Amino acid sequence: YKRQDLRDSKLKDSILIGGNFTGANLSGLHLQKRNLINSNFTNAILIETHFEDSDLTGSLLNGVNANKTRFNKSNMTNVIAKNGNFTESNFANANLTNVDFTSSNLTKVKMQGSTISNTNFTSSILNYANLKGQDLSDVNLLKANLTGADLSNTNLKSVNFTNANLSSLDLTGVNLNSSNLTNTNLSNVNLTNAKMNSIIFSNTNFSNANMQNLQLNNENMSNSNFTSANLTNSDMKNTNFTNSIFVSCNLTNADLSTSNLTGANISGAIFVGTKLKKTIWIDGRTCKNDSVGVCK
C-alpha cells in the first residue's frame, strides 16, 4: 500500500497486520475494529480517518497528517508518532501507554478517559488540549507547550515540565508533587491550593501567578520570578529564595520564617502581616523572632 491513494478503497477483507502504508493517503477511510499491529504509516495522510477500537500496537505514525482523526478506544501501546500533525484528533478512552509524541502537534486533541502512562510529549504542542481528569504522573512534558490546555482535576505528580510553557492555565488544587519545574513558564497561572511538595525549581517563572494558600516548605526556589504574583496566606517556611524576583509581589500574611531571601529583589512587594521569624533578609542579616511585615 506504499504511497497509494486508498481514499476510495474498502480494505474490508484485507489483512492489514504489519501493513506498509508509508506515504499513502487513507483520508476518510473507516478502519474501525481492525488489527493494524506493527503497521507503518510513516508520512501517511490520515485526515478524518476512523481507527476507533482498532489495535495499532507497535505501529509507526511518524510525520503523519492526522487532522481530526478518530483514535477513540484504540490500542496505541508502543506507537511511535513523532513529528506528526494530530490537531483536533480524538484519543478519548484510547490506550496511549509508551506512545512517543515527540515534536508532534496535538492542538485541541481530546484525551478524556485515555490511559497515559510513560507517554512522551517532549517538544509537543498541546495547546487547548483536553486532558481533564487525566493521570499524567511520570509523563514527560519536556519543552511542551500547553497554552490553554484543560488540566483541571489532573494528576501531575512527578511530571517533567522542564522548559515547558504552562502560561495562563488553571491548576487550582492540582497535584504537582515531585515534578520538575526547571525553567518552566507558569506566568498568569492559577495555583491556588495546589500541592507542590518536593518540587525541583530553578529559574521558574511565576509572574502574575495566583499562588494563594500554597505550602512550599523546605523548597529550593532560587532565581525564580514572582513579579506581581499573589502569595497571600502561603506557607513558605525554610525555603531558598536567593536571587529571586518579588517585584510588586503580594506576600500578605505569608509565612517566610527561616527562609533565605539573600539577593532577592523585593521592590514594591507587599509584606503586610508577613511572618519573617529568623528569615535571612536580602542583605544577609537574620530577622528577629518577632519580625512581622518588617525585618527587625
List the keywords.
little secondary structure; 296 residues; 0% helix; two-stranded parallel ribbon
How would you sum up this structure, described in words?
It is a single chain. This protein has strands spanning 180-182, 200-202. 51% of the residues are buried. With 296 residues, it is largely without helices or strands. It has a two-stranded parallel ribbon. It contains no helices and 2 strands.
Question: How many H/I helical runs?
Answer: 0
Low confidence ranges: none
Average pLDDT figure: 94
- Percent strand equals under 5%
Alpha carbon gap, first and last residue: 78 Å
Question: What characteristic shape results from the CA principal axes?
Answer: elongated
What is the string of helix and strand elements? EE
Tell me the Rg in angstroms.
24 Å
Side by side, the strands of the main sheet go: 1-2
Number of strands: 2
Largest sheet: 2 strands, parallel
Structural class: little secondary structure
Helix fraction by DSSP (H/I, runs of at least 4)? under 10%
Topology, please?
Layout: E1 180-182, E2 200-202
Parallel strand pairs: 1-2
In a few lines, what is going on in this structure?
The chain has 296 residues and is low in regular secondary structure. It has strands at 180-182, 200-202.
